[in-house]
Design a protein that fits this description.
By secondary structure, the protein is of the alpha/beta class. The chain has two domains: 5-46 and 101-298, Aldolase class I (TIM Barrel, Alpha-Beta Barrel); 50-97, Alpha-Beta Plaits (2-Layer Sandwich). It has eight helices and 13 strands. A hairpin with a 2-residue loop joins strand 4 (69-72) and strand 5. The longest helix is centred in the last third of the chain and has 14 residues, at 228-241. It is globular and about 60 Å long.
Length: 299
């Protein structure tokens, strides 16, 4: 059996927005991007981190007995990633770690608990973070899933090497690739990385035998990605690569900001903005269609 381990920050069961049918979504920790609107801040860093739940805290300061905790202003501040003493001391369970390690057999055991629900193309989706950041573990998991006859999907920025992409393709049934911003300068401003590698991998995906598996996604973030010009540029690019490409426009999700409260050193960089209305989403759809995309998915 494979022996590598992966760091997982969540396993979401009965997911309906992460691929075909009912799915179990495995969120792998670590991401090379730093999107200003990140929906999963708990998946950014590659190590296990302590988190504090304000809603559970009874403010007893029992955690202060840990030498790596500075309890002030009504909350604990972590001076280390290892606070076992504080986790054990907290009577309300308000302090815990944000992720845990799995080897391949252990994670497969968790996934197969839901196997009875994987009818009508349901299965397992690997998300993040950025799943390719744990490439070796991802590849082993995909191979084991296919051995078990499970439908597989990935949600990724595809900010990885082309060799990694080629290696996992035979074991994927559905591929979600984010292209957030077409202009490279703006992409670097909003995500801290260039999009050249992403475009190269997307061009490979949409120009080959796996093109029909691919759905390109753009999260519509106010004042960042959600401009008519950006949607048109992305739509024109991907429809040229593959005329039957499917393009999904994701409405902004304002609920993610609450996750940042779990950490005392992360800041949500999007202001108090709302989701787009149905009419505004239709404008983005029309822009994508005008630029050449025939198959547009709206959440």
């Amino acid at each position: 059996m494979p022996t590598s381990k992966g760091l997982v920050f969540d396993i979401k069961r009965f997911a309906v927005h992460d691929g075909d049918g009912l799915r179990t979504t495995v969120f792998l920790k670590g991401c090379p991007l730093r999107c200003q609107w990140c929906q999963n801040p708990e998946g950014l860093r590659v190590n296990t981190m302590p988190v504090w739940f304000d809603s559970k805290c009874i403010h007893c300061a029992s955690c202060a007995q840990c030498s790596h905790i500075d309890f002030k202003e009504g909350r604990p501040h972590f001076m280390s990633d290892e606070v076992d003493e504080a986790v054990d001391a907290c009577p309300a369970g308000a302090i815990r770690y944000d992720s845990r390690w799995y080897d391949v057999p252990a994670l497969m055991k968790e996934i197969r608990k839901d196997e009875v629900f994987f009818r009508h193309d349901g299965g397992v989706t690997f998300s993040g973070g950025e799943p390719f950041l744990q490439y070796g573990f991802l590849l082993e998991m995909l191979k084991e899933c296919k051995k078990a006859g499970l439908h597989t999907a990935i949600e990724s920025s595809f900010y990885t090497s082309l060799d990694n992409v080629k290696a996992v393709l035979p074991y994927l049934d559905r591929i979600y690739c984010d292209l957030k911003v077409f202009d490279d300068t703006k992409h670097q401003e909003f995500t801290s990385v260039s999009n050249e590698r992403i475009k190269e991998n997307l061009a490979f995906l949409l120009s080959g035998e796996h093109a029909s598996k691919v759905i390109v996604r753009t999260p519509l973030i106010p004042d960042r990605t959600a401009t008519i010009d950006n949607v048109k540029a992305i739509a024109g690019y991907i429809s040229t690569l593959f005329p039957d490409v499917r393009y999904e426009l994701l409405n902004y999700n304002p609920l993610a900001s609450s996750k940042y409260e779990l950490y005392d050193d992360l800041e949500y960089r999007i202001g108090n903005v709302k989701q787009f209305t149905k009419e505004e989403m239709e404008q983005f759809r029309a822009a994508a269609k005008q630029a050449g995309v025939k198959h547009i998915v709206m959440e």
